[in-house]
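Two records follow; treat each independently.
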Amino acid sequence: MTATLPQTKSPAEMAGFITAEIKAFVTNSPLNHMPTPGKDIIFDEPLVQFADGDDPLFTEYKDIIATTHLTPREALARAGNKKPGELPRRISVISWILPITLNTRRSNRTQTRLPSRLWSHTRWFGEKLNEALRAHVVALLAGRGYLAAAPGVPPLLKIERNEKGMYSNWSERHIAYAAGQGTFSLSDGFITGRGIAHRCGNVVTSLELPASPRTAAGPFANCLTYAGEKCGLCIERCPAGAISEKGHDKNKCHQHLRDLGYDPSQDYHIETSVAGCGLCQTRVPCEAVNPTRKLKKASVAAT
């Protein structure tokens, strides 16, 4: 059911409208159920935040990730067959996090080499929901006269490879960081207020929305290791030896997946292909929470 469009249409009210619509879609969509006898729920309620589409951070990503990484303005212009300067003065990014349910996370905690079936289903069937959500938000905005695009899927999305491994021209995690959803981890994952076990999605639009603040002290602030605490449990969990104190080795990670029968450049049947073991995202302190919050509370209590 579509939420009621605010009459005054202020940016804050539109943000509330979009947030409610995204949450309702995930709650009510039949795609948010596993293809199992119990029809398990795939994702919990989404986290929704926003970014200024012209935040300077997006330009910095061209140096941090690759020169080919799109800014939101470039992505929206490309989708609308326009020049970036032809777009409205203000554009926005809508970012959401889809937290993976406890039942699925619990099933993956005992795994040591392969993902559990529920975790693998989340990768495949859960992403079908994510794709449908992107299309729904784009249609919702376009139906109200706004430009909108989902750069995280083809034809805008392009996958490339260099000596460090695979990368894309639109990093969903980096977009989430710009929207204040969380920070990066030692394992190269993204730790939100609901932890690291999730999937990301986003849409760029000409609708002006209030940017959510980035409250983290830095790009790795939510990771216990970078906070100076003894952790590194993701290192122990990785069956490929792809995580170390130096970070995440994409090539080792992808080689492990290929050894399991998955090649991300190929199209596989969702019932038989393994994608992303996710072991480093379960049975770790950041699985479902931001573990540094306790440190912050302790610091405040000590002052």
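The next record belongs to a different protein.
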Amino acid sequence: MATTNKRARLDPALFDLPVEKMRAGWYSDAYFNHARATLLQDGRHPHVVMQVFQKKHAWLGGMDEAIAILKLCSHGYDGLEIRALHDGDEISPYEPVMHIEGDYTTFAHLETAYLGTLARRTLITTNVVHVLQAANGKPLIFMPARFDHHRVQAGDGYAAYVAGRIVGAEIGVTSDEQASWWGGSGIGTVPHALIGAYGGDTVLAAQKFAEWAPADMNVTVLVDFENDSVNTALAVAAALGDRLWGVRLDTSESLVDRSLVGELGDFKPTGVNERLVWKTREALDAAGYERVRIVVSGGFTVDKIRQFEDAGVPVDAYGVGSSLIRGSNDFTADIVMTDGKPSAKFGRHLRDGSRLEPVE
């Protein structure tokens, strides 16, 4: 049996839900509100079993948040019986992840909200698991915050954190909001904007950043500002010495780094490619900077990371952004029993929920 600590759920209060609006059906597809109003006018309170599932092989995210929606925003949670899987559980196509049993009118208005939550968070958790598996346990910097609305950050960051627990790999997120549900904090490198603010002088910006940075911060510097990553990496390493933790390669997919101009012909030279990483690693090692790590970012996907790992490219950590929030992992909810009798629509039925655990 799993330990209590391992199976603990997040406190519903953590999610800071707009409870009154949710309870009023503000976030619901109108037809659920209309269905509830119809039942209430008719005086009908059907006792139903609602079964929630999705159609892919995935890793579950958003369950604690979905439960919080039901706990805080239903009209009579005490009358409901809920059984559910946990965030991070590996799930199969059509496998029930949650059963909700009780008076349908008490929770009919919440279907849109809890399904949308499960869909979004499961997508993130599953995408991050795939990337971490491809990266062979190397650390991941979760970097999609700038590509989406700020209100999704906390839940997405936690979904990424759950994926890290699944794989047993280190996850870093780039904003404090993304880390807020587990008590972490955002991490970050010396950005292009700071380099620009110092007139394009990467070394000067790195020095000033290092002077400001807390002693326990791993100082990592972007080295592609002048499109001369190898030489910039060496210059930064010489200037910062032991204070430098790593350099980050982030060359645009539309550019060829200067160090590769004389080697064109037998590989794709644009962006952060295998040869650029090797040249940077070899140059740092030759100059005595073997301990300086190399972080790569810019257009990295599961497939690109897998190619790098299969080729043994000397990357120490991957920064991945927009690809982690792309795709879909849609959930469905069906009433499969009503007043003790089967009532599923054609093609659906009450599925085995033996893995589901009671929700207190």
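Discussion point: The chain has ten helices and 14 strands. How would you locate this feature using only the token line?
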